[in-house]
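Need residues for this backbone.
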């Protein structure tokens, strides 16, 4: 029975500064690096066969720290399909200041609705449309072959995957919270159906 571990990257500099990040390539904070070390310690003992991450350094650095902590040397596949949701014109803006400028209801809609995109950016629906075909083809392909897979990506790309695995609807998935650096483990059968889930 293969295992899939999903990890959102550790705290980034713009997480700390409460800024919209999206595709901007910002580094981890020291707390983010510590979160990655803690995630690695929690994942020791799982013999992952392959790891996937995004094209962004905060996810790649989190993965590298996790692999160092677990002592694993596995193939790493990097793909922009796993990138964070693109926040478009909001990228780099302070979230509180943006709420003051556009109104808290509008910013909440941009951040938490399923199908409303921020100006120049992606909705969660758009992110899922980018992430899930890659997940189905590549990640699920490995899982169906019995390989244990580690995915270190982002809040919204991982939320898209959780939506698929937990069979959530649009109204349900927008309430899903994925903490930075916290592994979520899924056990799957040979057909790729979820048989168990736990948060480490």
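Answer:
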């Amino acid at each position: 029975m293969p295992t899939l571990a999903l990890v959102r990257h550790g705290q980034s500099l713009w997480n700390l500064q409460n800024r919209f990040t999206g595709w901007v390539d910002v580094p981890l904070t020291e707390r983010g690096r510590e979160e990655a070390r803690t995630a690695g310690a929690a994942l020791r003992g799982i013999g992952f066969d392959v790891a996937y991450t995004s094209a962004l350094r905060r996810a790649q650095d989190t993965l590298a720290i996790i692999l160092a902590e677990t002592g694993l040397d596995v193939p790493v596949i990097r793909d922009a399909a796993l990138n964070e949701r693109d926040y478009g014109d909001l990228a780099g803006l302070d979230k509180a200041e943006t709420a003051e400028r556009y109104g808290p209801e509008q910013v909440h809609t941009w951040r938490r609705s399923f199908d409303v995109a921020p100006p120049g950016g992606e909705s969660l629906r758009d992110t899922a449309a980018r992430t899930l075909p890659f997940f189905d083809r590549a990640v699920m392909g490995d899982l169906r072959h019995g390989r244990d897979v580690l995915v270190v990506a982002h809040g919204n790309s991982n939320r898209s995957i959780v939506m698929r695995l937990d069979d959530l609807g649009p109204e349900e998935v927008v309430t899903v919270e994925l903490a930075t650096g916290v592994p979520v483990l899924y056990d799957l059968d040979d057909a790729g159906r979820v048989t168990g889930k736990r948060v480490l």
